[in-house]
Design a protein that fits this description.
- The structure holds two protein chains of two kinds.
- By secondary structure, chain A is mainly alpha-helical.
- Chain A has one domain.
- In chain A, 69% of the residues lie in helices and 3% in strands.
- In chain A, 13% of the residues are buried.
- Chain B has a domain of 111 residues: Oxidized Rhodanese, domain 1.
- Chain B is built from nine helices and five strands, in the order αααβαβαβαβαβαα.
- The chains are: A mainly alpha, B alpha/beta.
- The interface between A and B is medium-sized, with 28 and 20 residues.
């Protein structure tokens, strides 16, 4: 049956409208759970607040379990879902830049826009920085192109590259998630409390 | 009292939630796996297969070709030699074993034209029909009787005997006219200037718009 749009159950013209709706919901939840504060996001790296880690780990675990149950019951075809293409070195370099920016600025791109919406000054500077970065990247695109386009591995997943059983990966992933929650709680108790 | 027990249970809430998560994930591992069926449901396939609408008769096809009906594609599922030897005008050759090749998917999986399969009889064409119908392709037909029946009814129609009805005579004259369209010459029609009638029909190029099939896209 699903996914709904590629199989024509919901017509393709609706996808932008649905995207806007989901985007608004996502932004609302981000803001109402305090993710538009750079202190909360940076807390993961300093060990006084692990909400981000918990939220995203839980989201990933719940959705992957849900998707595979739906696939098992025939409501959703996993093979039709979008898998992000892998450009190996582009992903590594981009990941490092993104990580540095995340620690230094205390925002990821999504939450920075959320914080812009509620008028945080540091977020305005952060988004300005993103724009400058985009500008520099596009101006020097011909120089960056070999990294950007190189080492294309296709739309691969761990199951394709290592021939693993998805069900065991999900099980292992949930165990890792639970362990990470427990460890992060322990770390948080040892680190000095910071009020913000 | 109740409040106290609730509070006691709720103090374990994170552990309970973690346990549920792990149990659900473990459930996926334990669940018995089964081979998933691709394409349309078997009941649907059966009801399509027994429907007489999936056949087109040679007379209907001849009528379509003569009237230059643009709404169909002929697909010859025999091998290449037979196709080169004799085939219907403007037919495409997709041998049965290559039927599901990527190159031909654009011709079979579209909503623009009716697809008419034929082979010598309708045996291989039926197989092609089942394969494609099962994948959920639309507007598929099979030429009833295939090339053999085409030959005995259109190209070389049997003359009705004197005891037969008027309809038979009418049908015969239609078929005879059709066969003349397809290049058959009868002694009573033959004249000197018709002798160069056997000009090969120019191949019509059939362009098939690929069905809009957009991969899902995403990003963060």
């Amino acid at each position: 049956m699903g996914p709904l749009i590629p199989n024509g159950i919901i017509s393709m013209e609706w996808d932008s409208i649905i995207a806007i709706f989901i985007g608004i919901c996502f932004g609302f939840v981000l803001e109402s759970s305090g993710f538009s504060s750079s202190r909360k996001l940076a807390g993961v790296f300093y060990g006084y607040d692990f909400a981000v880690l918990k939220v995203f780990f839980t989201a990933a675990a719940v959705s992957v379990i849900g998707i595979y149950y739906m696939d098992y019951l025939g409501y959703l075809d996993v093979s039709q879902l979008y898998v992000h293409p892998t450009y190996l070195w582009g992903a590594i370099v981009g990941g490092i830049i993104m990580g540095v920016g995340f620690v230094a600025g205390g925002f990821c791109p999504g939450t920075s826009l959320c914080a812009v919406a509620i008028g945080k000054l540091d977020a305005w500077i952060y988004v300005l920085g993103i724009m400058v970065g985009v500008f520099i990247f596009s101006e020097l695109y011909s120089f960056f192109e070999p990294i950007y386009d190189g080492d294309f591995l296709g739309n691969i997943t761990l199951m394709d590259s290592f021939n693993w059983n998805p069900y065991w990966i999900i099980f292992g992933f949930s165990i890792i998630a639970v362990v990470a929650f427990a460890v992060s709680d322990m770390v948080r108790k040892r680190v000095k409390k910071i009020f913000y | 009292m109740v409040k106290k027990t609730v509070a006691k249970v709720l103090s374990f809430r994170y552990k309970i939630l973690a346990l549920i998560l792990v149990l659900l994930a473990g459930g996926l591992v334990v669940l018995p796996k089964y081979q998933k069926q691709k394409g349309i449901k078997s009941e649907q396939l059966l009801s399509n297969a027994i429907s007489p609408e999936r056949y087109i008769s040679t007379d209907q096809l001849a009528d379509k070709i003569i009237n230059q009906d643009p709404s169909f594609i002929l697909i010859d599922v025999r091998d290449e030699d037979s196709y080169n030897n004799y085939s219907l005008p403007n037919a495409l050759n997709i041998p049965l074993q290559n039927l599901l090749d990527q190159d031909f998917e654009g011709y079979l999986n579209q909503n623009q034209f009716d697809v008419i399969f034929y082979s010598n009889d309708n045996f291989y064409a039926d197989q092609a029909w089942v394969l494609c119908d099962r994948l959920g392709y639309k507007n598929l037909r099979v030429l009833n009787g295939g090339i053999n029946k085409w030959f005995t009814t259109i190209i070389n129609p049997t003359e009705p005997t004197e005891t037969m009805s008027t309809e038979e005579y009418k049908l015969y004259s239609t078929r005879k006219a059709a066969s003349m369209f397809f290049g058959v010459m009868y002694p009573d029609q033959m004249t000197a200037e018709d002798s160069n009638l056997n000009v090969p029909v120019p191949k019509k190029v059939i362009t098939v718009k690929k069905k809009k099939k957009r991969a899902a896209e995403g990003g963060c």
